[in-house]
Amino acid sequence: MKKLISVILLALHIQRGDFSDNSDFHLIEAPKLEVFEFNNTIYATCEVSPIPNLPAGQPKIFGQVLFRQVFPNGTAEVKINLRGFPETDNQVRAIHIHQYGDLSQGCVTAGPHYNPQDVPHPNHPGDMGNFMPKQGLIRRFLKLPEVKLFGGQSVLGRAVVVHEKEDDLGMGADEESKRSGNAGRRIAGCVIGITKPHLWQKTEHVEEEESKR
Ligand SMILES: [Cu+2]
Ligand SMILES: [Zn+2]
């Protein structure tokens, strides 16, 4: 009985959607089926591949960006596991979540950084920051409190984009710095989708680093 009540309470949990100026606008979301199935946690994966029209000379990046979040307000955790960077490469690469999970014309159709609160870069929820590959790999574990897999500002169905260059983290002199961080061309991407816990569980422990904000 106690368990039944807690399941009902969980199911009735109300999350606020802050994307509207109207403070009466609430989003009521039942937890996704997978939350019950996987110990109150949602898991997501993003299968990274090179954009179709990759310019000559750019590396072909493959791998996964994995997400998980405990329902409803746990801190989102992210594992980045990418390969294909030149082994001798000292180029730092920016990774962001972009608005649209549409890679039909490469990452161009993925739109701008996902920015549900209308804030300047690098304060967007998916501004993961800069990553230096080691021996051709980027392998990181991050905690990203502003990334949500539940509610009106969920990143499910949106795109992760890997850039050619380093993100200036909003410190540049031009306007684009506060929009995108001047991270150069988009070289690889993927769409974030719900998955089982198996990918998260099978990836080995990766170097832990807090988000660089
Ligand atoms: Cu980006
Ligand atoms: Zn941004």
What does this molecule look like?
Pfam families: Sod_Cu. Keywords: Antioxidant, Copper, Disulfide bond, Glycoprotein, Golgi apparatus, Metal-binding, Oxidoreductase, Secreted, Signal, Zinc. GO terms for molecular function: copper ion binding; superoxide dismutase activity. This is Extracellular superoxide dismutase [Cu-Zn]. Residues 7-20 have low confidence and may be disordered. With 213 residues, the protein is mostly beta strands. The chain is 12% helix and 30% strand. The protein has one domain (32-202): Immunoglobulin-like (Sandwich). The N and C termini lie far apart (45 Å). Strands 1, 2, 3, 4, 6, 7, 8, 9 and 10 form a nine-stranded antiparallel beta sheet that branches. The longest helix is centred in the first third of the chain and has 10 residues, at 2-11. The site of zinc ion has 6 residues, from loops.
Label this structure with key terms.
213 residues; nine-stranded antiparallel beta sheet; binds copper (II) ion; 10 strands; mainly beta; binds zinc ion
**Helix proportion range:** 10-25%
| Structure class | mainly beta
Q: Look at the structure and give the CATH class.
A: Mainly Beta
CATH architecture annotation: Sandwich
CATH topology: Immunoglobulin-like
Ions, cofactors and other bound molecules: copper (II) ion, zinc ion
Domain module tally:
1
Write down the Rg: 18 Å
Task: Tell me how many strands there are.
Answer: 10
Strand content: 25-35%
Averaged pLDDT: 87
The named CATH superfamily: Superoxide dismutase, copper/zinc binding domain
Q: What's the main sheet like?
A: 9 strands, antiparallel
Organism: Danio rerio
Pfam families: Sod_Cu (PF00080)
Subcellular location: Golgi apparatus, trans-Golgi network; Secreted, Extracellular space
Keywords: Antioxidant, Copper, Disulfide bond, Glycoprotein, Golgi apparatus, Metal-binding, Oxidoreductase, Secreted, Signal, Zinc
